[in-house]
Amino acid sequence: MRVKICGITQPHQGKTIASLGATALGFICVPSSPRYVNSEQIKAVIEQLPQQTDKIGVFANSSKEEIAQTVAETGLTGVQLHGDEFLDFCQQLRDYLPNIEIIKALRIKTADDFDRAKTYTEYVDTLLLDAYHPEQLGGTGKTLNWDMLQQFNPDCPWFLAGGLTPQNVLEALNKVKPNGIDLSSGVETAPGDKDLDKVSQLFEKLRK
């Protein structure tokens, strides 16, 4: 199972988190976010990482040119779309960046949102389901309704996100069978400052 730790800002934390077992690290490329990092900061972290670690940039309503420029400047291996990107944009970005993983994040409010999520499966490589918040795009600490997610079985791999912590991750995985999990605020002391003890606890729990 893939384990993505998102909102990385510091090179030494990124390196340690990868060594603890994270298969992917996420970098927030949304300037309004408290976890925002620019291309130089992303590159400084990526230089510390093993080649096999996936490096995912998180964007919201950016142009495909902006996304491609950040990918070129940093060496990102994936792009996560966390805004209001529609199917045609996902298709255009796929054509624009054919060798980059494209992840579409969707904030789930009701069961109807699952049908909307499934429409993206032809256009992206991976889905990510996050909890809905009226003002924030992610990193809110709110959990999804895991019982409601038990019927979710899309035609592509998907990440479970939204309020996961070392304390609740096994409960979530007992109910839901995603291809990966994504944590941010659940392993932090403050936005963008990861708690390495919590990250270590997470991987201890997952190994059990």
UniProtKB/TrEMBL annotation:
Enzyme class: isomerase
Molecular function in Gene Ontology: phosphoribosylanthranilate isomerase activity
Family membership: Belongs to the TrpF family.
Superkingdom, natural source: Bacteria
The protein's annotated pathway: Amino-acid biosynthesis; L-tryptophan biosynthesis; L-tryptophan from chorismate: step 3/5
Catalytic activity: N-(5-phospho-beta-D-ribosyl)anthranilate = 1-(2-carboxyphenylamino)-1-deoxy-D-ribulose 5-phosphate
Keyword tags: Amino-acid biosynthesis, Aromatic amino acid biosynthesis, Isomerase, Tryptophan biosynthesis
Keyword Isomerase carried by entry: yes
Pfam families in the record: PRAI
Enzyme Commission number(s) of this protein: 5.3.1.24
Gene Ontology BP annotations: L-tryptophan biosynthetic process
Keyword Chloroplast attributed: no
CDD domains: PRAI
Domain N-(5'phosphoribosyl) anthranilate isomerase (PRAI): 3-204
Protein name: N-(5'-phosphoribosyl)anthranilate isomerase
